[in-house]
Known about the structure:
- Helices cover 44% and strands 9% of the residues.
- By secondary structure, it is an alpha+beta fold.
- The protein has 2 domains: 7-86 and 195-204, Ribosomal Protein S4 Delta 41, Chain A, domain 1 (Orthogonal Bundle), CATH 1.10.1050; 99-182, RNA-binding S4 domain (Structural Genomics Hypothetical 15.5 Kd Protein In mrcA-pckA Intergenic Region, Chain A, Roll), CATH 3.10.290.10.
- It starts with 6 loop residues before the first helix and ends with a helix.
Amino acid sequence: MRYxxxxxxxxxxxxxxLGLKTPGSKSHARLLKKLNVRPGxxxxxxxxxxxxxxxxxxxxxxxxxxxxxxxxxxxxYFTFSIKKKGNTAEHLSKFxxxxxxxxxxxxxxxxxxxxxxxxxxxxxxxxxxxxxxxPSYQLRANDLVTLRDEKTTKIPYVEKSLANKDLLLxxxxxxxxxxxxxxxxxxxxxIGQQINxxxxxxxxxx
Length: 206
C-alpha cells in the first residue's frame, strides 16, 4: 500500500527532505528545523549498529516514499529494469523519471509529486493534446505535456508554481508557459543526489 501517514515524520526518520511538502510552506519550514531529529522519544537507548541489509532497506524506502509508490509498484519497476541490458540502476531511475506525475512535478506545474499525482488523476493534464489520467503513464521523447485549459492555471498552487522564477529544469525537459516537452531519455543524476540506487538494486537482488 502507498504510505498515507504523517509525511514530515517520514522525512525525519530517513534524515533527508524527500520533497513531500510544498517548499515555502509552514510545514516544510518545520521539517527543515527538525530534519536531523529522529521522531519518537530520544536518548533512551544508544545507537544501534546498522546492518548492511538495514542500509539497503532504508535507501529502498526513501526511493519509494519520494515517488509515492507502493512496494508492488517499485518491485515491478525493478523487474522491468533488470531484464534490460546495461546498468540496472540507470534503467530504474529512467522508469521513475518518465512517470507522468514526476514530469508534471519536474516541469513545475505542481509543488510536490503527490500533488502532481492528484493533478493528473483529476484530469488536468494532457499528453500530445490527449487527456491522460494515469500518473504512472510512461512518457517518450518529444511528448508534449500541457495543462488542460486556462481554468486549470487558476488553481492556487498551480498559479503559484507557475510564478516560480527559480525553477531549474533537468536537461531532458523544456517548458514554455503551460506547455512542457519531454526532450529525451532522462538520466539518474537527480535521483542519485538523494538516493544510493546501487543499494536499492542490491536489496532486490538478494
